[in-house]
Design a protein that fits this description.
alpha/beta, Rossmann fold, Alpha-Beta Plaits, four-stranded antiparallel sheet, globular, binds adenosine-5'-triphosphate, ABC_transporter-like_CS
């Protein structure tokens, strides 16, 4: 018995001379949520494709549910559920028919959930009789995930499950993911949203140009990136100089005439900061409170901002 749901060592994949995965190592304990965080083109979908047996790696090993993804692909497939980046639903069928078809393919009765329950859970009961061609992007993604749950897979791969969802649908998706994990399911989730990984994941790995540049709990990663800070923009370099002397722990950007002052963004801290500006007869042109996002993570971990791959 192993307690790892997913074990990956030295995984490599190239398309032609373009190296997409350059030696990936990761280990996902059973019953946890693992999030692979990265910008467009980082290699997230390629990783999911290899782990779900849809694509062969060029090197390294990957075991899912204790089985090798290349040598024992069939055994792996029997144990996983996959919701791809692009919804794999049949346009011509209704939502209900899509779910029923999946039930039939899974030899109905093996799963715990009924079609009606799934429709209800995903807020799709009202649209159940409509052809999927009339569904919005978010409705398709929800239907796609509902279909993945049929057959009760113990390891589920979700490739950017909430990209393009409105805030309410995103919360519904998060609740469903948490529910699955509390039932012992292992989730491998890719996302471009730091907040999502932070909210859901037990462990996060940051993927950049085919390499994992950081791995850890959300707390461990956040300690490596700049926290919440106030950004002040000044009218002149002289003002910026003066302010940088007043706020000794700040970071300056001479080109943008801005100063980043670390702080928690609470009203007490903000008032103290404004008072200090006043006491020193300094005036900021612009003032904003900034919470770290994916760009900050990348800047801190790689020294460069997220680079969107030209496809
Ligand atoms: N079948 C393919 N043939 C050639 N290049 C590919 C293929 N699939 C992916 N790539 C390239 O591999 C790189 C990683 O792609 P991948 O789809 O894994 O990124 P991603 O992290 O999922 O990005 P996104 O956030 O946009 O979904 C990209 O440069 C992409 O152009
Ligand atoms: Mg992708």
């Amino acid at each position: 018995m192993t307690s790892s749901a997913i074990e990956v060592a030295g995984l490599r994949k190239a398309f032609g001379d373009k190296i997409v995965l350059d030696g990936i190592d990761l280990d996902v304990p059973a019953g946890t949520i693992f999030s692979l965080l990265g910008p467009n083109g980082a290699g997230k979908t390629t990783t999911v494709n290899v782990l779900t047996t849809l694509m062969r790696a060029d090197g390294g090993t990957a075991r899912v549910a204790g089985h090798d993804v290349t040598a024992q692909a069939k055994a792996v497939r029997a144990r996983i559920g996959v919701t791809g980046q692009f919804a794999a639903v049949d346009e011509l069928l209704t939502g209900r028919e899509n779910l029923q078809l999946m039930m039939d393919l899974n030899r109905a009765g093996s799963g715990r959930r009924t079609v009606a329950e799934l429709l209800e859970r995903f807020d799709l009961t009202g649209a159940a009789q409509k052809s999927v061609s009339t569904y919005s992007g978010g409705m398709r993604r929800k239907l796609d995930l509902a279909m993945t749950l049929i057959g009760d897979p113990r390891i589920i791969f979700l490739d950017e499950p909430t990209t393009g969802l409105d805030p309410r649908s995103r919360r519904t998706m998060w609740d469903i993911i948490r529910e699955l994990v509390s039932g012992g399911v292992t989730i491998f989730l890719t996302t471009q949203y730091l907040e999502e990984a932070d909210q859901l994941a037990d462990r996060i790995a940051v993927l950049d140009q085919g390499r994992l540049v950081a791995q850890g709990t959300p707390g461990e990663l956040k300690r490596q990136i700049p926290g919440t800070h106030v950004r002040l923009r000044f009218a002149s370099a002289t003002d910026l100089d003066a302010a940088a002397r007043v706020f000794a722990d700040s970071t300056r950007d001479d080109d943008g005439l801005t100063l980043r002052v670390p702080g928690d963004g609470g009203t007490t801290t903000l008032r103290a900061l404004l008072d200090r500006l006043d006491e020193n007869a300094l005036r900021a042109e612009e003032f904003s409170v900034h919470t770290p996002d994916l760009d900050d993570v990348f800047l801190a971990l790689t020294g460069h901002a997220t680079e969107v791959d030209a496809k």
